[in-house]
Design a protein that fits this description.
Blueprint: H1 13-17, E1 32-34, H2 41-54, H3 63-69, H4 77-80, E2 81-85, E3 91-98, E4 107-115, H5 124-141, E5 149-156, H6 161-169, E6 173-184, E7 202-206, H7 212-222, H8 234-238, E8 250-254, H9 259-264, H10 270-277, E9 283-290, H11 296-299, E10 303-311, H12 320-334, E11 339-345, H13 352-358, E12 362-373
Parallel strand pairs: 4-5, 10-11
Antiparallel strand pairs: 1-2, 2-3, 3-4, 5-12, 6-11, 6-12, 7-8, 8-9, 9-10
GO molecular function, one term: acyltransferase activity, transferring groups other than amino-acyl groups
Keywords: Transferase
InterPro entries: Acyl_CoA_acyltransferase, GNAT_dom
């Protein structure tokens, strides 16, 4: 488990969060409200996909994904979610506040929600978002973690202007911008992918279950200096894998790491150090990929999606992540995918934008994170 950092110069989080004693009432639209349960997965799927279509979002969800949300032990839907039903029992609005157990540098509360297109303009969304922000403040205040904190929401750049106005009126400001990129794989003879040779004892291998934990440790190390990233616990790392495509995922391992040098490195985290002492495999680069066939029609093409890509900090400059990505792209193409897709923080500290441009990736659309920083 990652060590939780403290921030002694900050006021107590309970004070910074300014949590209300009670949550605001939800009265607009005459809806009946209650927390979500696993039995609501199908109705929630229909509502979320309906709002995604209305807002021209470039993705859809499946029942398996929605069902999986309720399986995560850290989610407290009974306290952190709310559903609004009309007089006929149809789901017309939802809100959810999500916190993650691995947060150790900045404690985050993400807000997800929406209102059915047929019920917009009645003030439901405004009241619902106020409920979510208030609940997020309560959750943060009660966390027991004395850390910087964030209330955040993601939005598509070309989404409804009314949503962005709602978020900004509630005090959230744009903090980070993301680009969704794609690379054409349909004619690799005309647009070939570069060849990469790994040096020393580095070896490219397919993803396998026995390397999953070593990949989690590599990911936590790789993203430690990325804004907004927090360590993944084991349950976070292995949860939410409905779309995971192990057949496309690729890893780079070091068969003969300099254990003593890594143990002496002040940046080596405790979990990696324990794994090195135990003689466990060391994953140094990885590309974890996903398959979302439900999005093919929405986007108008088939694709493989690289969800997380990274290289351990001590191995940067040795092309481990690049080798894993290129092998992934070739795996996509071998299975008939027309494009390789991924998204990237526009301020990524590793210079990823230049790498992706060099490989032929181009931007298709963008999104942003808006937040209240506490």
């Amino acid at each position: 488990m990652a060590t939780v950092e403290t921030s002694p110069d900050l006021a107590p989080l309970a004070e910074r969060a300014d949590a209300p004693a009670t949550l605001p009432a939800l009265t607009a639209g005459g809806l009946t409200w209650r927390p979500a349960t696993a039995d609501d997965a199908a109705a929630l799927l229909d509502l979320r996909n309906t709002t995604a279509e209305a807002d021209a979002e470039p993705y859809r969800e499946t029942l398996e994904e929605l069902t999986e949300l309720f399986d995560a032990p850290w989610r407290r839907f009974e306290d952190d979610s709310i559903l609004g039903f009309d007089a006929d029992g149809a789901l017309r609005a939802y809100g959810h506040v999500e916190t993650l157990p691995g947060d150790s540098r900045t404690l985050r509360a993400f807000l997800f929600g929406g209102v059915h297109p047929s019920r917009r303009g009645e003030g439901i969304g405004r009241e619902l978002f106020a409920w979510q922000v208030a609940r997020a403040r309560q959750v943060l205040a009660a966390s027991g973690k004395e850390l910087p904190a964030r209330i955040g929401v993601f939005a598509e750049d070309d989404g409804p202007a009314a949503k962005l106005r709602l978020y900004e009126r509630a005090g959230l400001e744009p903090r980070r911008f993301y680009s969704d990129l794609r690379r054409d794989l349909r004619d690799l003879e005309a647009e070939p992918l570069p060849e990469v040779t790994l040096d020393g004892s580095l070896r490219l291998v397919p993803f396998s279950a026995d390397l999953d934990e070593a990949t989690r440790l590599a990911h936590n190390d790789a993203f430690r200096d990325h804004w907004g990233s927090e360590p993944n616990t084991r349950e976070q790392w292995t949860g939410g894998r409905t779309g995971f495509a192990p057949q496309w995922s690729r890893l780079v391992v070091d068969d003969a790491p300099d254990v003593q040098a890594l143990l002496a490195d002040e940046h080596t985290d405790d979990e990696t150090a324990a794994a090195l002492r135990a003689g466990e495999p060391l994953v140094v680069g990885y590309a974890m990929n996903e398959l979302y066939t439900e999005d093919f029609e929405v986007r108008g093409y088939s694709f493989g999606y690289t969800a997380v890509l990274g290289t351990r900090r001590a191995y940067r400059g040795r092309k481990a992540g690049l080798a894993a990505l290129l092998a992934s792209m070739r795996a996509f193409a071998a299975d008939g995918m027309e494009y390789a897709c991924l998204d990237v923080d526009t301020a990524n500290p590793s210079g990823a934008h230049g790498l992706y441009a060099h490989l032929g990736y181009t931007k298709t659309h963008g999104s942003r994170l808006l937040s209240i920083e506490l």
